[in-house]
Each structure stands twice: as C-alpha cells, then as structure tokens.
Specification:
heterotrimer, A alpha+beta, B alpha/beta, C alpha/beta, B: alpha/beta, Rossmann fold, 5 helices, 41% helix, globular, C: seven-stranded antiparallel β-sheet
Chain lengths: 589, 105, 463
C-alpha cells in the first residue's frame, strides 16, 4: 500500500499527505518508530491522524504506513485478569519488553500468541452452525468458561473439529459450505462498531451490588445504564471500585480512563486478594482492566472506552451478565475536546465538540439486555456505569448534561456529605433510578413482599427530615414537637445505620439483599415503635436512651451468616418499648 | 366558641389545698411516678396552665423540660409552704436569656 | 554543523514562527541567537510543512525579525543530571545560579519524562511522619503520594511547606532522603524564606532548588516543574533516594500555560485556561510514585493559591481530580492565629488508610482519626448553632462538643511551625482531647481501644 508523508505535527495530531488509498478510521503506523495512530478525517489526500503515543521527535517528511484495517480488538481466551492500555496492548507484557516506563513504538498483540488453552468442542462434525453458535469452550479462569463462538457473518457445516491444547491462532474448527472457513479461537472486531445481537430486551432484574443505598434506594438494572457524577473527593472512584468488586455480574470490565495511576495499581493489588462471595474465587478471575492513566497519551484515552465496551460486548454475546465501569467519562470527553480543538473544528459549549452528546449516547446505547446471536437464544446483559467528573462539582456542564440525558440511573455524589464523612456520599434527595418500578416488582417477588413499601416509607422519612431540618436551622430543634423530633431521630438512624456503609470494613463492605431488607425493617421499626410509645405517653428522651439503639447502630457489622440476629434486635426493640409503655404510659395509668 | 382552658395545681397537699378556694383544680401528689403521670394526664386533658410546686418539680425534671418546649400547657413553678428552691426563678431567667439574648432581669 | 535560519517571520507574545525549515521535529529544543549575541531557548510547538511554531522560554523582547538566528538542536529540552546537584541552586531552566562550579552531567534526560507503566507501579503504603498533627493524625501522607496544599494569597503555605520539608521522615529507617524544590513565579522574599530556612536547618545539604522568580520570564515556568521532576526521577530511580518534591506555586504555572494557549489562539476551556490543562497538570503530578523493585520514591507536595479562595476554580479543581487528596488552609483559622491554619474537615489524604494502623503507626489510629473528624464536625456545628441561638440553646452534649472543637483547634491543629510532634504524641493528644466528650459519644472507636487507651477512671466530663 502507498506510503504517506507527514506534513504537520501538533501534539497528538499528525497530518499526512498522499493518503488517498486509506479509509477513515483506518489504523496507521506513523514514522519509522511505528507509532500507532488512527485516521479521523480525510480531506483530499490529506489524512488527519490521532496518534496513540507521544509524538515528540516526529517531524514533517517522515513516512506514514496504512494497515487498511480499522482499530480492532482481539477477542478470545486470555482477556480475563489482564490489564491492557487504551488500544489493547497488554501492559505487563509491555513492561517485560520496555521496562518500567512506557516507551514508544512497542507493538504487541492483545492476546498472547504462545499460550495454549484446552479447547473442548461442543459441536460434532456434520453439525450446521451459524453466527454466534458456540462451537466449543475453554476454561479461561476458575470462574470464567470462555465460549468460542462462530464470528458474525460466517456459517456452514462443521467439517472437522477437535479437542486439545491450542493457541488462540491455531485452527480449531473448519466449516464447509459455500465457502470453507478455518475458525480460530481468536476473532477480531472493530471497536467503534457495536457487536450484533438478535434483539434487545427490557432490563427488569436488578444488578445487585451489595451497596445498601444503591440496591435499596437507587437500583441499577442488568443491562441498564448508570452515571456517578461528583466533584473530587466525593468518593467516585471508591463507588466504582465497590461496584467492580461486588456487583453480581459474571464479567467486570474496568476502564481507568484518564485517572490516577495509583488507582489502577490499587485494583491490581487488591482484587486478587478479595474473594467473590458467590463463587469463593478471587475477584480478579472475572475482571478485565483497561488503563489509560492521566499521563498516558491523550488520544488513546478516547479509544480506551471503546476498547473496553467491545470486550464487554464479546462476553455478553456468550450469554453472560457483564458490567463495565468507565472512570471517568469526563476525561474521555476532554480527549475528544482536545482532538477537536487541534482539528480546528467549530467548538460547542465550553469548547467541547458539537458531537459530544451524540458520541456519549452512542456509547451508552451499547448497553442492554439482549438475545444473543446463536441458535440457543441465550440472553446476555451489558450494564454500563460511567463516572463523570464535573468541574467544580457543577453538573450543569456539558459532559454531565449529555450523560444525564441518556442514563437511567443517577447517583449524585455530594461533597458536603463527604466532608461529613458520610460514605458512600450519594445524595438521597437528588439521585434517582428509572428502573425503580421494575426492580420493585422483582424485589417484592424475590426478597420480601413488603420491600417496596418499606423503601418508600424510609424515603418519605428522609424527605421529611430535610424540610424539618430547615425549621431546625431557623428556630432550633427544641421548638419541634416530640413527634417531629422522633422523625428526625429515625431519619438520622436511616442515614447513619443504613445508608452509611464503610467500604473498608470486612463485613460492612458488602450487604446481601436479605440483610438489607432486615436492616431496613429494623430502622423503620425504631420509628414505628417509637411513635407507638410516644402516643402512649412515653417521653422521647426515654426512647432515645434505649440501650437497644446501640445494637441497631452496630447491626451493619453483623456477619452475613448471622443475619437472624437482626430479627432478634427488632424483637428486643419491641420488648423494650412495651416495657416503657407499661411503665410510663398514660393510657395504662 | 372559644375553647376555655382549665387551670390546675400540682404538689403536696398542704401547699396546694388553698388553691381550691380560687376554683382551681388541685392534684395532690407525693412521689415521682405519680407526679409525672398526673402532669402528663393534665396536659392531655387540655389544661392550659399547670402550677406545680418547686419541690414536686424537682422530682420530675424531664417532664418539666418536655412541656417547656411546648406552647401549652404552661407549666409554672411556684414555691411551696416550705419556702422556695429558686428553680422557678432560674427557669424564668433562662427563658428570658433565650428570648432576648441577654439577661435583662 | 547545525543549520542556522534567519527566517523568523512572526513574533507574537511568547511564540515565534520560523519559515523554510527542514527536518524539524515536534518538541525539539531551539536556540535563538539575538543580534546582541544573547542566546535564548525555546521549543517546537507545532510544525506545518516548512513552518515551525516555536515557544520562547525567555520571552520575545528584543527579538529582531531580520537579524535573529535560529538553530534547531535535534533533541528535546533536556536536563543534565548528576548526584552533585544536591545542595545546589538552579534557575528555572536548570542553569546554576549559586556561583558554584558547573555541573558535569552523568546523563541527559528529557524533561518531559515518560509515563510510568501502571503495572510497574508499587502502591504507596509507607507512612511519612511530617511532625504536623493535622497531617499525620488525620490526613496521613505516604511515600509516593501527591498531596497538594490548597492555599490562598496571604496564607502561610510557605511556612507549612518548609516545616514539612524540614521534619518529614520515615519511621525507624536511615534511608537516603532528598528534597527537590521548584519555585515558579514566586517573589524574591518567598524564595529567600525557603533558602534561609533550608540553610538554617541544614536541609540545604540534601536539597536541590530550581528557582523561577516572579520577574523571571513567565514561559520558563512551563519547564521548571519538569526540570525539578526530572532531577527527582534521577535521584529516586537511579540513586535510590526518597525524594520529596515541593512545587510552588502551581497557579503561576497554569497562568503561563494560559498565556501560551491564548497566543496560539486556541479555543479556551473554563476561565480561559486551555482545554488540555487537566492532561498537562497530570503529566506533572503523575510523576510521583514508586516502582516495584526499586528502592527510591517520589512524593509530591504541590502548592497552589486558590484565586479568591475559590476551590471550584479550574486550577484547584483539576488538581484535586489528579492528586491523592488535598490539604486546605483556612483564612478563618489563620485570622484566629492557628498555626498552621489547616482546615481539617475538607482536607483529605486518599492514601491514608494504607499508611496507618498496626505496624505502621499504631493500632488505634484509624478509629481515633474517624472519631476526631466526626467530633470536630459535630462540635463546629454546635458552635455555629450557638452563634445563632445563643449558648443557652445547646444541650450539655452539644456544649461538650463545642468545647472539644475549640480545644481541638487550639491544641491539636495549632502547634506552631517549629514544633515537631511524633506520631505517638499526636495520637495521645487525640485521646486527651476525646476525654472532653462523654464516653458514650465515642461510637466510632472499638471497645478494645476505648478500654486500652481511655480507662474508665480517667474519664472526663460526666453528664
């Protein structure tokens, strides 16, 4: 293919002439260093290229080679547990080749070509297979059974297939028909195109995260979309990490997009140590990491979330429930802005390109619960959770607004809560979940028929608290009636004993739905019973001084295997209220 | 029709019996639990003013505190036949301080 | 022989356009010789065909389009590094200004550095004792962390930074330690304060100083922090030293960046700062860290003054998104005479949990830290309430909390700039203050520690 020639270098943007044979979005190799880039615009024979590596030392006159292929990822065994950079180069392999710092021009394939995997066929010679059909499996990690599927657009009759140890590029199966196909375990897919499926379904099952404020009050659905906006220091990354740790998805793809290097290290060090409560295996065994830290080349940041979601879609196609966390989409938007500025496009709001909203929408739309390709009609789900970092915490800025228009769940982080050390600092007054109704039905059916009723009751108390707080601020707490003061106490109990959750405490970090349900009942019982006592003439002070309150406060630390203790706390609460009533109540006087 | 509030006086029998002559309902009490129950019941029965002797009030500070923060009933401390303990005056001082910001008495 | 061009066609602000050039590379270092013989330096920002856009580090004053000679040196801006740099003072572009001998470089390093492979990073977890209670006790600094000080104009951030530089040490080790100090656009007095302080305390013997003063060329500031970090990287990763890098003032750095951006007529982001401010700051801050298998480390304390004390201003805002926490100074505390005036509540060290606890500081550290935070927050609220409603409106517990908040500020935070407290002293002081509160209110401390560190008979105010 024709070799182009660089005529302009401006940061990560390189313009080359003589590129008339190349296509938009083709991958190119820039200069003799073979830096990887992607064509983002063509004008005549001039191509604008965003380069995924540092362009220091590149100048006009140097060659540009086209590969004729769009930016793609390699999909096959070897993805799980690996950390990739924004264009799917394995970072640990890069370290072996290039040392502790990221040197340029290292060209490594996404998947290890040497490693052998044990392939077990699930079809026989003579079977008719089509796109998406599973032809065999590989046990990739202790918990991930990697299904080898026929790539989209290919079908035929199995001519030969065999069990054994193969690398990802060995032929494991041959199909015959109109044309003969040799299938390998690895397939490629361009990152900017969503992988095909048969149809989308309505997400109705909650993504259980073990985080009380999320599961109980603002649930996400499997196959849904959620956004976590928040200023710095409000715990966005902790929330994302908690979701990556505890969400009940079979595969987690974590994209560290323009964030701190140490955070990725944290994930790398911590995840292998944590046991998944469902499988008992290390969490790393279901996790794929994509890292483009804030000091890595900015153009690769733009690609990183596409790389992540394409890998996620691939596992969804196997019929798994997959969740992808992107931390943070604001950095991705900034990368778009930087490239747009260098292309001298007409800027929109705050310098962001006019197509920001449509790009964001395209990305989130790749989420969904779908019927996958293949004869067995398996169902897979891809949940997308994006963090947003609005400047100054002000969500009226373009990235937050573009995101909020699309996502169905909004977990608004609040710095004033974080200052008070209320974590997770999700503001219960302005967060919402549009999956609430569907999830309520699911919860009432599967957890407790009272669940949604209790949730609404607790939320009402919290709402009432905020209006009462305004009065308190003006005239002091004493001027409230005892009934209202009890309400404040009950709301405080909901906040402190239910909503606050310590991500670093071994028992508190994850709460099963069953325990959440009991805890919710417990904090509400305090209000109901307290009200009963007040009605019967018991003094508020006596209710507040009950020793059982200490137990309520510590209930979150009760282990999952002893949740019945919470029921006994409720019993104890009732008994002590009975005692108060019989002692001091007027009606019994 | 305007609702007419009633007036009560609570305390040891010797101190309060004289109030009966004024047409005020008197509720003699001796010990703590009894006093508390009586005051609570009176509050419920729409008594607008409850006079209570300082001696009796000193037994049930929680109850006094409770009604302090409510508009009605007005719980007013009075000395008993054994003299004053000064807590009634203290409370007035405190309330004045709270209302005006400084003690002007 | 390098080609010399006399084809400067345009000079605008800190930028210069040279035409008809050949073989020029992006980010290349440029030498400009004025008609007077003066040599200035610059770097290539953009090349389009035969036109090169050059950023001048030392300003454009006096450049003559006709007679100025331009040479492209074929390498990026580099710093010659050597172990002998310790104890020396340099200007913002790395040239010695202390009358000492020339540095003979052991090697030359690109000042832009190379991003660290995330896989190679080692997670920071070693406690650094700064001797400042509000930091050690509540916002603990660990090795390899980047923890900025958010200050305002007129606040004593310099004193605090000098105190940290003087006192910082790692418990129980005699490892090699160095301070790299980069001043960007600060006044002569401020720079002199640091130099005097370093000289007085002997810290100068283990320090490298890069000084760009307020009257030095603004654009030079873009290179200064990178010079400092390049030197730090050399000392940390090749000389196995633990390096503390102090960068002051990042606000001046960002303004210099804005100046260049404006001269290039780029589309501005918020408040006129370029859209890539985040990425640019990240290339500085992310150079802090540790590498697996190498003994050295780089810990960064950037200082920035928040314009109008506004934390949502782009500079503190974007910094906060990159750094691992922040130490915030408060004007209110400063006026009260609290030294250092650290506003504990909004300050945060994200890595503190990894650096504290048994074997690192003391077992009770995490619990007392949470308790002190919570109690101080409650106490402050109570105090605010008292201002509105009067002291009389407070309950006894609230009064205890208000008293606690007062004492906490006066004794815990207010320690003076010359007081070096060990972590044990800090923790014990914490317990002493907690005695002011009813025992039942100490909900965040595990019972074992309550019994061990606060035995019943020493209990403070009773209800």
């Amino acid at each position: 293919m024709k070799v182009g020639r660089i005529i302009k270098v401006s940061g990560p943007l390189v313009v080359a002439e003589g590129m008339d044979e190349a296509n938009v979005y083709d991958v190119v190799k820039v200069s003799e260093n073979k830096l990887i880039g992607e064509i983002i615009e063509m004008r005549g024979d001039k191509a604008s290229i965003q380069v995924y590596e540092e362009t220091t030392g590149i100048g006009p006159g140097e060659p540009v080679y086209t590969t004729g292929e769009p930016l793609s990822v390699e999909l096959g065994p070897g993805l799980v547990t690996t950390m990739f950079d924004g264009i799917q180069r394995p970072l640990d392999a890069i370290r072996e080749v290039g040392g502790d710092f990221l040197t340029r021009g290292i060209d490594l394939p996404g998947l290890d070509r040497e490693k052998k995997w044990h392939f077990t066929p699930t079809v026989k010679v003579g079977d008719e297979v089509g796109p998406g059909d599973v032809i065999g499996t590989v046990q990739e990690t202790a918990v991930v059974l990697h299904k080898i599927m026929v790539p989209p657009g290919i079908s035929g009759r199995v001519k030969s297939i065999e069990e054994g140890e193969f690398t990802v590029v060995d032929t494991v199966c041959v199909l015959e028909g109109d044309q003969e196909y040799e299938l390998q375990m690895m397939q490629k897919w361009p990152v900017r195109r969503g992988r095909p499926y048969i149809k989308k379904l309505d997400p109705d099952e909650p993504l259980i995260t073990g985080q009380r404020v999320i599961d109980t009050f603002f649930p996400a659905a499997k196959g849904g979309t959620a956004a976590v906006p928040g200023p710095f220091g409000s715990g966005k990354t902790v929330v994302q990490h908690q979701l990556a740790k505890w969400a009940d998805a079979e595969i987690i793809v974590y994209v560290g997009c323009g964030e701190r290097g140490n955070e990725m290290t944290d994930v790398l060090m911590e995840f292998p140590e944590i046991k998944d409560p469902r499988t008992g295996e290390s969490l790393m065994n279901r996790t794929i990491l994509i890292a483009n830290t804030s000091n890595m080349p900015v153009a690769a940041r733009e690609a990183s979330i596409y790389t992540g979601i394409t890998i996620a879609e691939y596992f969804r196609d196997m019929g798994y429930s997959v969740a992808i966390m992107a931390d943070s989409t604001s950095r991705w938007a900034e990368a778009l802005r930087e490239m747009s500025g260098r292309l001298e496009e007409m800027p929109g709001d705050e310098g962001y390109p006019a197509y920001l909203a449509s790009r964001a929408a395209e990305f989130y739309e790749r989420a969904g619960k779908v019927v996958c390709l293949g004869k067995d009609n398996r169902v897979g789900a891809l949940t997308v959770i994006g963090a947003v970092s609005p400047p100054g915490g002000d969500i009226s800025e373009p990235v937050s607004q573009a995101t909020l228009r699309i996502v169905k769940v909004f977990w608004g982080l609040d710095s004033s809560l974080a200052y008070r050390r209320h974590f997770p600092a999700i503001n219960w007054l302005n967060s919402y979940s549009l999956y609430q109704n569907k999830v309520d039905q699911w919860m009432d059916k599967n957890i407790d028929p009272e669940f949604s009723k209790n949730r609404i009751k607790a939320m009402t108390l919290l709402q009432e608290e905020s209006s009462l707080q305004e009065i308190v601020r003006l005239v002091g707490r004493d001027s409230l009636s005892e009934g209202d003061q009890l309400k404040l106490e009950a709301a405080k109990s909901i906040r402190e004993d239910f909503l606050q959750q310590n991500a670093f405490h071994e028992e508190d970090t994850y709460t099963s739905l069953n325990k959440q349900n009991l805890m919710l009942k417990m904090v509400l019982a305090f209000y109901d019973e307290g009200k009963r006592a007040l009605d019967n003439g018991v003094y508020l002070k006596e209710i507040l001084d009950l020793p059982v309150r200490e137990k309520i406060a510590r209930a979150k630390f009760i282990g999952e295997d002893r949740v019945s203790e919470i029921e006994s706390i409720i019993e104890e609460l009732k008994a002590s209220i009975d005692e108060l009533v019989s002692k001091g109540g007027i009606l019994n006087a | 029709m305007i609702y007419m509030y009633k007036v009560a006086v609570v305390g040891d029998k010797d101190s309060i019996l004289g109030f009966k002559a004024l047409g005020i309902d008197v509720f003699p009490v001796i010990e703590k639990d009894e006093a508390r129950r009586v005051v609570d019941t009176l509050a419920r029965d729409k008594y607008g003013i409850i006079f209570i002797t300082e001696q009796t009030a000193s037994l049930i500070p929680d109850t006094i505190e409770r009604y302090n923060n409510q508009m009605l009933p007005a719980v007013i401390l009075i000395p008993s036949n054994q003299g004053t303990l000064n807590i009634g005056m203290d409370m007035i001082n405190k309330n004045v301080e709270k209302a005006v910001g400084t003690n002007i008495l | 022989m390098l080609k010399e061009y006399r084809t400067v066609t345009e000079v605008v602000g800190p930028l210069m356009l040279v035409e008809g050039v050949e073989g020029v590379k992006f980010e290349e270092l440029v030498e400009i010789e004025l008609q007077t013989g003066e040599i200035r330096r610059g770097r290539v920002l953009e090349i389009h065909e035969d036109k090169a856009l050059v950023q001048l580090f030392e300003g454009s004053a006096g450049i003559n389009l006709k007679n100025t000679k331009v040479r492209f040196l074929g390498r990026p801006l580099e710093l010659g590094v050597s172990h002998d740099m310790i104890g020396r003072i340099f200007d913002g572009l790395g040239r010695p200004i202390d009358d000492g001998p020339k540095i003979i470089p052991e090697k030359r390093m690109d000042i832009n550095g190379v991003p660290m492979n995330p896989v190679a990073r080692d997670y920071p977890s070693e406690f650094i004792q700064t001797g400042v209670s509000a930091i050690d006790g509540l916002n603990t600094l660990v090795r390899g962390q980047k923890l900025p000080i958010f200050s305002g104009s007129g606040l004593p951030h310099a004193e605090l930074a000098a105190q940290i530089a003087r006192q910082a040490r790692v418990l129980g080790e005699g490892e090699k330690f160095a301070v790299v100090f980069a001043a960007m656009g600060i006044t002569f007095e401020e720079a002199q304060f640091f130099m005097d302080d370093f000289t007085r305390t002997g810290a100068i013997d283990r320090a490298v100083l890069f000084i760009n003063l307020a009257d030095d060329p603004a654009i030079e500031r873009i290179a200064t922090p990178r010079m400092a970090l390049t030197c730090a990287e050399y000392l940390a990763y090749e000389r196995d030293m633990h390096v503390l890098v102090i960068l002051t003032d990042m606000t001046n750095y960002a303004e210099a960046l804005r100046e260049t951006s404006a001269a290039r007529k780029e589309v501005p982001g918020r408040r006129g700062y370029p859209g890539y401010l985040y990425t640019d700051l990240a290339t500085i801050y992310e150079r802090a860290g540790r590498i697996k298998g190498r003994p050295g480390s780089i810990t960064q304390i950037p200082i920035l003054t928040m314009p109008e004390d506004d934390i949502t201003h782009p500079i503190p805002d974007l910094t906060g998104y990159i750094t691992e926490g922040q130490i915030i100074l408060s004007r209110e505390l400063h006026k009260k005479g609290i030294e250092p005036p650290i506003n504990v509540l909004p300050s945060l060290s994200r890595l503190k949990d990894k650096g504290i606890g048994e074997g690192k500081t003391r077992e009770d550290h995490a619990d007392t830290m949470n308790q002190l935070f919570a109690a101080y927050a409650t106490g402050k609220e109570a105090r605010e309430l008292a201002v509105i409603l009067g002291e009389a409106a407070l309950s006894d517990t609230d009064k205890a909390f208000a008293k606690f908040a007062e004492e906490f500020e006066n004794r815990y935070v207010n320690q003076g700039y010359n007081n070096n407290r060990s972590i044990i002293e800090t923790l014990d002081l914490g317990w002493e203050l907690l005695k002011l509160l009813p025992r039942t209110e100490l909900k965040r401390i595990r019972d074992v520690f309550l019994e061990k560190y606060l035995p019943l008979e020493t209990e403070g105010v009773e209800k």
